[in-house]
Design a protein that fits this description.
2 copies of one chain form a homodimer. In chain A, helix 13 links the parallel strand 12 and strand 13. By secondary structure, the first copy, chain A, is α/β, with parallel strands linked by helices. Chain A has 2 domains: about 270 residues, Bira Bifunctional Protein, Domain 2 (BirA Bifunctional Protein, domain 2), CATH 3.30.930; about 60 residues, no CATH class. In chain A, the strands form 3 sheets. In chain A, strands 1-5-6-11-10-9-7-8 form an 8-stranded mixed sheet, with helices on both faces. The interface between A and B is large, with 99 and 98 residues.
Chain lengths: ~400, ~400
């Protein structure tokens, strides 16, 4: 039998699991303090829901579950790959949420402000920092077009990051409608916009020349490409620059409102308009945002408005906006810097000779009112065992029949 | 798109999710206070590990994940069902733990006392109370044959159940070795024992006559069946009765030690030997135990010793024993009796006119030091909205620009 985990998934040692628990708990508590309610949805979704969900690239990364019994036999005869599976593992928490809302909306507050902290799955090509099983920490506000929803999500997400010791970051914000208006002004056709966005999204990786080459390769007009290149090379490309290009565009005001409101609520928060911010999902319709760690580089949270996704489950159209913390990135950063959990409950060992099991249990019980207490039979090499306890983060020990009081293990 | 969850899985509303969170948190904290350390393992396991794991009936209930890309194409040509999947969803937490221990043992304390609280999957025929996605709460002690491990697991599990308001239950205990010795004395052959156990396991459902008929149908000797029937109809069939049948059997002492030690540590705990207790898994080797709710009927926790499972991953044999709380049964019971979470953080709403968003945010921020605070725009029918808040478990509200102080919502 194989002792390693399957590719792209991890086992977590006790110290790692303790940090993960702590971080998820802190994020949950911050979200709850800001009035969001936790919900839970299944990891497994109907395969059709997943396939039709406009998840962009992620649709190619779905883990599919094999049909069972007679249905599988029939499917095998048909020899059609599509027929083989009836369910799949979710690739994000937004699609399950949309289904959930459609199914339960009469039992929920309106607007509905909710939390999901849970696992998602993507069949990524395994590489450093890319997991196939990972956690996301999402908050969403469903049922309002008011931009106060965007403001609340940004303020809450920033607070959660601060509460877990991720202090230095900036929020970037863009709007799909504004970006499309700018690209249209540059001369791109309506049917070209999504493809142009995909190329712009690679700016970080392939540089401006790379983006220009890719667009030329796609056969777009040279004049439009030049115009876009000029915009992308304007630094900083501010909101007022955008407003010079398409002064009538309504979404300019949307960004303006969000920037001003966030600043008014939390003046210390760094937030800026960024024309190059795309966010991959096909379902975003308006605002998109991302948090970038200025200390550790890279995106640590992202989200946006998806006003049409829930409508796919209902006859009604239902506006919605969400923000998701990339938990694994946060966990990686804090592990790398040796982050210590503040104020955790003290953990000690009661060490005993086998014959003293019952009275040692009694001793442990007394310590348990204030400590986490593990019982261990006294090993031959007690000193070595104490070293192991220290490695595991134990704070002290008590040797039954020998210690007069708790012995602390120093750092 | 389909708005319901896939068969055998559930969405949880905010109040339900809050109860689930609370229960898992209480169970976790109890386990930790007794010196167990939480670990985390992936939901996905290698399909071969699952297939070879001696999980009994559960091996027929594995959700398999379809291969992807070239590998899938090759498998489709072979048209062999077995070739189609490379991974599967775990059906319990014991198999992943065994793999985990084999992989990480040098980094762990010995004996290793650990917690897993997590999801498992079984492709059960959906029926009331049988879920396909559900949680288990496991504690295990790996690396010792000492029966103090069994005692610690029983004491800790009982404490966890008590801490979440499940007060009335009894612990049943049996031992595979003793049961096999008794059956051998009754005249069954070594190769017949597993099959006889499967029939005994149905005693609750089909009664003694049912068991006798089933065994006769399997073609076993009438004399052995009669002898077994006599034993099974002896009420109570005590440990001293068992000792009359096979006085030399070593495992009699094992059960005796566990019963006496548990009583010594917690005299209030009801615990008894039960010859009819089987527990289905093929991997159990010695002690098996189960907690039965005396108030709500049915098993709410179960486990046993599995001294050979980890050895399948290592050259070494490694003894181990575990106890698992069936979370969904507990959640069902507490939901049915309308269990209220004690001492939860108060949840309030700050209600405001759209124009007052920024000062309302400020008001909310002040309340957040002591409360969970949600912001809502004042709806036309405020009274109706307050009723909705009450339904959702809110404790109070504050209308910005109108309330002088927090208005409590009565029960």
């Amino acid at each position: 039998m194989k002792i390693s985990t399957v590719k792209g998934t991890n086992d977590y040692l006790p110290k790692e699991a303790a940090l993960r628990d702590y971080l998820m708990d802190q994020i949950l508590k911050t979200y709850q303090s800001c009035g969001f309610q936790r919900i839970m949805t299944p990891v497994i979704e109907d395969i059709e829901n997943l396939d039709k969900s406009e998840g962009g690239e992620n649709l190619n990364l779905i883990f599919k579950i094999l049909k069972r019994g007679d249905k599988l036999e029939k499917a095998l005869e048909a020899k059609e790959e599509k027929e083989l599976s009836d369910m799949g593992l979710r690739y994000d928490l937004t699609l399950p949420l949309s289904r959930y809302y459609a199914s339960n909306k009469d039992k929920l507050l309106a607007p509905f402000k909710c939390i999901q902290i849970d696992r998602v799955y993507r069949a990524e090509r395994p590489q450093k920092g890319r997991l196939r099983e990972f956690y996301q920490c999402d908050i969403d506000i469903i049922g309002t077009t008011s931009l106060t929803a965007e403001v609340e999500l940004i303020i809450t997400t920033a607070q959660a990051l601060k509460n877990i010791g991720i202090g230095e970051f900036k929020v970037k914000i863009n709007n799909r409608k504004l970006l499309k208006a700018i690209l249209t002004t540059a001369g791109f056709g309506a049917e070209e916009l999504d493809s142009v966005c995909i190329s712009i999204d690679k700016l970080d990786k392939i540089g401006l020349d790379g983006v220009k080459n890719e667009l030329a390769g796609k056969g777009y007009a040279a004049a439009s490409i030049e115009k876009l290149a000029e915009i992308l090379s304007t630094k900083p490309f501010t909101l007022s620059k955008a407003s010079e290009i398409c002064p009538e565009e309504e979404s300019l005001k949307e960004i303006q409102f969000i920037l001003e409101s966030v600043k008014a609520v939390n003046s210390e928060l760094e937030i800026d308009y960024d024309i190059t911010l795309i966010r991959g999902q096909g379902y975003y319709t308006g605002t998109v945002f991302e948090v970038e760690s200025t200390k550790f580089r890279g995106a640590i949270a992202g989200g946006g408005r998806y006003d049409n996704l829930i409508g796919k489950f209902l006859n009604d159209s239902v506006p919605a906006v969400g923000f998701s913390i990339g938990f694994e990135r946060i966990f990686g950063i804090l592990t790398d810097i040796g982050y210590q959990i503040p104020d955790r409950k003290k953990q000690i060992a009661v060490i005993y000779e086998e014959k003293d099991f019952l009275p040692a249990m009694e001793t442990a019980k007394n310590f348990r009112e204030t400590h986490n207490v593990a019982l261990y039979v006294k090993p031959k090499k007690t000193g070595k065992f104490i070293d192991r306890l220290k490695e595991q983060g134990y704070d002290g020990f008590f040797i039954y029949g020998q210690s007069e009081e708790l012995q602390l293990i120093g750092d």
